[in-house]
Amino acid sequence: MLIAGNWKMNGLSPALGEVEALVRELKARPVAANVLVCPPATLVSRVAAAASGIIAVGGQDCHPQPSGAFTGDISAEMVRDAGGSWVIVGHSERRQYHGETNTLVAAKASAGWRAGLGVIVCIGETEAERLAGQEEEVVDRQLAASIPDAAGASPTAVAYEPVWAIGTGRTPTTEDIARMHAHLRSQLTKRFGSGARMIPILYGGSVNPRNAKEILAVPEVGGALVGGASLKAADFLAIIHAAPVGS
Ligand code: PEP
Fold first, then answer.
1. What is the average per-residue pLDDT within 27-43?
2. What is the pLDDT of residue 247?
3. Are 166 and 207 in contact (CB under 8 A)?
């Protein structure tokens, strides 16, 4: 199971204290789950140094090109060079606020693998799409167009994040999560065959210490992508410890 924290645009130097607390606690009480923290780019190298190999560190985005005249952007190679081993691509906030298309997200995923990173590709429907009963066709389109064929043989996770559940305190029912994750699993298997088994499907959207145990126990939930509740070590630890034993 992969429990990943997405700090978004949060975190100055004092936030390193949260990573140190997390690492201290995980050293004292090891877990089977893989733990990943994706801080803002400015902190990747310092979080990597504090992680002492106990947790993995990742970027929240990368540019498709390895280098070049792209002011303000960061390449996958730079994430790797800073000590990252994962990168998130296609987060709904990037799709919404930066106009990222499925095609661009796919190019970023390929860049992540090129640099030797694991790639978390985010997908998920808006509230209007769910109310219209279109959630499966929306995620099918995103899966088809934002996940390159190489995913079957490259370190990849899919994060199912209903947009309306991100940062709202609202979550789908466990039945809805189970239905969607079973659907995604069958789509991945159709496309990647046995390679699909290596692709965990994370749930993301208002996971917190109170609902984590129930969500992480849903079949085909292979972990969580956690925003707000990953900012404080105590909350994130509670979520990490909610992962089923042996997962
Ligand atoms: C996210 O940023 O991917 C996320 C799921 O945020 P939150 O947990 O705050 O809803």
1. 96
2. 74
3. no
The residue contributing the CA closest to ligand 1 atom 6 is: 227
Q: What is the pLDDT of residue 246?
A: 75
Residue 237: strand, helix, or coil? helix
Mean pLDDT (whole number) for 6-35: 97
Question: pTM surpassing 0.70?
Answer: yes
| DSSP 8-state secondary structure symbol assigned to residue 159 | E
What atom of ligand 1 comes closest to residue 161's alpha carbon?
5
Q: What pLDDT does residue 141 have?
A: 97
Produce one character per residue of 172-201: b if its CB has 16 or more CB atoms within 10 Å, e if not.
bebeebbbbbebbbebbeebbeebbeebbb
Is position 161 annotated as part of the catalytic site?
A: yes
From 3.40.50.720, 3.30.70.260, 3.20.20.70, 3.40.50.10860, which CATH number describes the 2-241 domain? 3.20.20.70
Please pick, among 63, 91, 181, 183, the residue that the annotation labels catalytic: 91
For residue 110, the SS3 value is: helix
Ligand 1 shell residues, CB under 6 Å:
6, 8, 161, 166-167, 204-207, 225-229
